[in-house]
Amino acid sequence: MIFAFEGVDGSGKTTLSRLLYEKILGETDYDVLWLSEPTPFPIGGTVRQLVNTQELNTFEQTLLFTADREYMIRNYILPNKDKIIILDRSFVSSYVYQIMNLDDTQTQLKNILITLTEYSIRNFYVDILFYLDCEPKVAWERVKNKEPENVKSIDYYTQMRKNYLEFLRNKHPHIKDIYILNGAREVSQTLLLVKNRILEQATFLLS
Prior knowledge:
By secondary structure, the chain is of the alpha/beta class. The chain has one domain (about 1-200): P-loop containing nucleotide triphosphate hydrolases (Rossmann fold, 3-Layer(aba) Sandwich). It contains 8 helices and 5 strands, in the order βαβααβααβααβα. It has a 5-stranded parallel sheet, with helices on one face. Helix 2 packs antiparallel against helix 3 (about 60-75), helix 3 runs parallel beside helix 5 and helix 6 crosses helix 7. The longest helix has 20 residues, at about 60-75. The chain starts with a strand and ends in a 5-residue tail after the last helix. The model has no long low-confidence stretch (mean pLDDT about 95).
Protein backbone atom coordinates (compact mmCIF):
# COMPACT_ATOMS: atom_id res chain seq x y z
CA MET A 1 0.00 0.00 0.00
CA ILE A 2 1.21 3.47 -0.85
CA PHE A 3 0.81 6.49 1.43
CA ALA A 4 2.08 9.86 0.23
CA PHE A 5 2.72 13.04 2.22
CA GLU A 6 2.36 16.43 0.59
CA GLY A 7 2.47 20.05 1.71
CA VAL A 8 4.32 23.28 1.14
CA ASP A 9 7.93 23.52 2.27
CA GLY A 10 7.85 24.00 6.03
CA SER A 11 4.57 22.14 6.54
CA GLY A 12 6.30 19.28 8.39
CA LYS A 13 5.61 16.53 5.87
CA THR A 14 9.20 15.21 5.77
CA THR A 15 9.49 15.12 9.55
CA LEU A 16 6.12 13.41 9.90
CA SER A 17 6.71 10.84 7.17
CA ARG A 18 10.11 9.89 8.60
CA LEU A 19 8.77 9.60 12.15
CA LEU A 20 5.91 7.46 10.87
CA TYR A 21 8.32 5.18 9.03
CA GLU A 22 10.48 4.76 12.13
CA LYS A 23 7.44 4.13 14.36
CA ILE A 24 5.94 1.45 12.10
CA LEU A 25 9.35 -0.13 11.60
CA GLY A 26 10.05 -0.24 15.32
CA GLU A 27 6.62 -1.14 16.68
CA THR A 28 5.04 -3.52 14.15
CA ASP A 29 5.86 -6.53 11.99
CA TYR A 30 5.00 -4.74 8.77
CA ASP A 31 7.53 -4.40 5.98
CA VAL A 32 7.82 -0.66 5.39
CA LEU A 33 9.77 1.44 2.88
CA TRP A 34 10.35 5.21 2.94
CA LEU A 35 11.06 7.05 -0.32
CA SER A 36 11.17 10.69 -1.34
CA GLU A 37 11.01 12.94 -4.37
CA PRO A 38 13.62 13.85 -5.46
CA THR A 39 15.03 10.41 -4.70
CA PRO A 40 18.55 9.62 -3.44
CA PHE A 41 19.16 7.75 -6.70
CA PRO A 42 21.33 9.12 -9.56
CA ILE A 43 18.65 11.19 -11.34
CA GLY A 44 17.29 12.48 -8.05
CA GLY A 45 20.77 13.53 -7.02
CA THR A 46 21.00 15.72 -10.11
CA VAL A 47 17.63 17.25 -9.33
CA ARG A 48 18.70 18.06 -5.77
CA GLN A 49 21.85 19.76 -7.03
CA LEU A 50 20.07 21.92 -9.58
CA VAL A 51 16.48 22.53 -8.52
CA ASN A 52 17.25 25.34 -6.06
CA THR A 53 19.87 27.03 -8.23
CA GLN A 54 17.30 28.47 -10.67
CA GLU A 55 19.37 27.06 -13.52
CA LEU A 56 16.45 24.89 -14.68
CA ASN A 57 13.30 26.12 -16.37
CA THR A 58 9.89 24.52 -15.73
CA PHE A 59 10.21 22.11 -18.66
CA GLU A 60 13.65 20.92 -17.57
CA GLN A 61 12.56 20.54 -13.94
CA THR A 62 9.56 18.43 -14.90
CA LEU A 63 11.59 16.24 -17.24
CA LEU A 64 14.05 15.44 -14.45
CA PHE A 65 11.38 14.89 -11.81
CA THR A 66 9.46 12.63 -14.20
CA ALA A 67 12.53 10.56 -15.06
CA ASP A 68 13.40 10.27 -11.36
CA ARG A 69 9.84 9.18 -10.51
CA GLU A 70 9.73 6.66 -13.36
CA TYR A 71 12.97 5.11 -12.11
CA MET A 72 11.70 4.96 -8.53
CA ILE A 73 8.33 3.44 -9.43
CA ARG A 74 9.83 0.83 -11.76
CA ASN A 75 12.71 -0.23 -9.52
CA TYR A 76 11.47 0.33 -5.97
CA ILE A 77 7.70 0.78 -5.73
CA LEU A 78 6.23 -1.82 -8.09
CA PRO A 79 8.59 -4.61 -6.89
CA ASN A 80 7.56 -3.83 -3.28
CA LYS A 81 3.79 -3.61 -3.62
CA ASP A 82 3.38 -6.08 -0.75
CA LYS A 83 4.98 -3.57 1.67
CA ILE A 84 3.81 -0.33 3.23
CA ILE A 85 5.42 2.40 1.13
CA ILE A 86 5.64 5.90 2.61
CA LEU A 87 6.41 8.73 0.20
CA ASP A 88 7.71 12.17 1.04
CA ARG A 89 6.23 14.00 -1.99
CA SER A 90 4.80 12.42 -5.10
CA PHE A 91 3.57 13.33 -8.58
CA VAL A 92 1.27 15.85 -6.88
CA SER A 93 4.27 18.14 -6.36
CA SER A 94 4.89 18.27 -10.11
CA TYR A 95 1.38 19.66 -10.56
CA VAL A 96 1.63 22.11 -7.67
CA TYR A 97 5.16 23.44 -8.23
CA GLN A 98 5.52 23.25 -12.01
CA ILE A 99 2.37 22.62 -14.04
CA MET A 100 -0.12 24.78 -12.13
CA ASN A 101 2.20 27.78 -12.18
CA LEU A 102 2.13 28.03 -15.98
CA ASP A 103 -0.11 30.80 -17.28
CA ASP A 104 -2.67 30.78 -20.09
CA THR A 105 -0.05 31.68 -22.69
CA GLN A 106 1.75 28.39 -22.02
CA THR A 107 -1.04 25.94 -22.80
CA GLN A 108 1.06 23.81 -25.13
CA LEU A 109 3.82 23.43 -22.55
CA LYS A 110 1.26 22.70 -19.81
CA ASN A 111 -0.31 19.91 -21.88
CA ILE A 112 3.10 18.37 -22.58
CA LEU A 113 4.03 18.38 -18.90
CA ILE A 114 0.68 16.90 -17.88
CA THR A 115 1.16 14.11 -20.42
CA LEU A 116 4.67 13.39 -19.10
CA THR A 117 3.53 13.39 -15.48
CA GLU A 118 0.52 11.19 -16.16
CA TYR A 119 2.66 8.72 -18.11
CA SER A 120 5.06 8.42 -15.17
CA ILE A 121 2.20 7.23 -12.91
CA ARG A 122 0.38 4.97 -15.37
CA ASN A 123 0.87 1.95 -13.06
CA PHE A 124 0.92 3.88 -9.81
CA TYR A 125 -1.85 4.66 -7.31
CA VAL A 126 -1.73 6.39 -3.92
CA ASP A 127 -3.97 4.70 -1.34
CA ILE A 128 -4.04 7.74 0.96
CA LEU A 129 -2.62 11.18 0.32
CA PHE A 130 -1.90 12.96 3.59
CA TYR A 131 -1.88 16.70 2.96
CA LEU A 132 -0.45 18.90 5.72
CA ASP A 133 -2.24 22.20 5.41
CA CYS A 134 -0.11 25.02 6.76
CA GLU A 135 -0.60 28.77 6.94
CA PRO A 136 1.92 30.50 4.63
CA LYS A 137 3.44 32.60 7.42
CA VAL A 138 4.01 29.51 9.59
CA ALA A 139 5.67 27.67 6.70
CA TRP A 140 7.78 30.71 5.86
CA GLU A 141 9.00 31.08 9.44
CA ARG A 142 9.89 27.38 9.70
CA VAL A 143 11.92 27.41 6.50
CA LYS A 144 13.57 30.71 7.46
CA ASN A 145 14.69 29.25 10.80
CA LYS A 146 15.75 25.84 9.46
CA GLU A 147 17.02 26.57 5.94
CA PRO A 148 17.41 30.34 5.53
CA GLU A 149 19.26 29.85 2.24
CA ASN A 150 16.13 28.29 0.72
CA VAL A 151 13.45 30.61 2.12
CA LYS A 152 11.18 32.34 -0.41
CA SER A 153 8.61 35.11 -0.11
CA ILE A 154 5.38 34.58 1.82
CA ASP A 155 3.57 35.15 -1.48
CA TYR A 156 5.29 32.04 -2.83
CA TYR A 157 4.01 29.86 0.03
CA THR A 158 0.56 31.42 -0.36
CA GLN A 159 0.46 30.49 -4.04
CA MET A 160 1.70 26.94 -3.44
CA ARG A 161 -0.94 26.38 -0.77
CA LYS A 162 -3.58 27.70 -3.17
CA ASN A 163 -2.34 25.26 -5.83
CA TYR A 164 -2.51 22.34 -3.40
CA LEU A 165 -6.07 23.09 -2.35
CA GLU A 166 -7.17 23.47 -5.96
CA PHE A 167 -5.50 20.20 -6.94
CA LEU A 168 -7.13 18.32 -4.06
CA ARG A 169 -10.58 19.64 -4.98
CA ASN A 170 -10.23 18.10 -8.45
CA LYS A 171 -9.76 14.56 -6.98
CA HIS A 172 -7.11 13.01 -9.20
CA PRO A 173 -8.04 9.41 -10.24
CA HIS A 174 -4.68 8.00 -9.10
CA ILE A 175 -5.38 9.06 -5.51
CA LYS A 176 -7.89 6.79 -3.76
CA ASP A 177 -8.34 8.81 -0.57
CA ILE A 178 -7.26 12.19 0.82
CA TYR A 179 -6.68 13.02 4.48
CA ILE A 180 -6.12 16.70 5.29
CA LEU A 181 -4.09 17.40 8.42
CA ASN A 182 -3.39 20.57 10.38
CA GLY A 183 0.28 21.33 9.72
CA ALA A 184 0.45 23.58 12.80
CA ARG A 185 -0.63 20.82 15.20
CA GLU A 186 1.87 19.18 17.55
CA VAL A 187 3.67 16.52 15.50
CA SER A 188 3.14 13.77 18.09
CA GLN A 189 -0.65 14.21 17.86
CA THR A 190 -0.60 14.16 14.08
CA LEU A 191 1.70 11.15 14.05
CA LEU A 192 -0.76 9.12 16.14
CA LEU A 193 -3.66 10.04 13.84
CA VAL A 194 -1.72 9.08 10.73
CA LYS A 195 -0.33 5.86 12.19
CA ASN A 196 -3.79 4.65 13.20
CA ARG A 197 -5.24 5.53 9.79
CA ILE A 198 -2.48 3.63 7.97
CA LEU A 199 -2.65 0.56 10.19
CA GLU A 200 -6.41 0.39 9.65
CA GLN A 201 -5.77 0.21 5.90
CA ALA A 202 -2.81 -2.17 6.14
CA THR A 203 -4.24 -4.88 8.44
CA PHE A 204 -4.56 -7.37 5.59
CA LEU A 205 -0.78 -7.30 5.02
CA LEU A 206 -0.22 -9.42 8.10
CA SER A 207 -2.82 -12.05 7.22
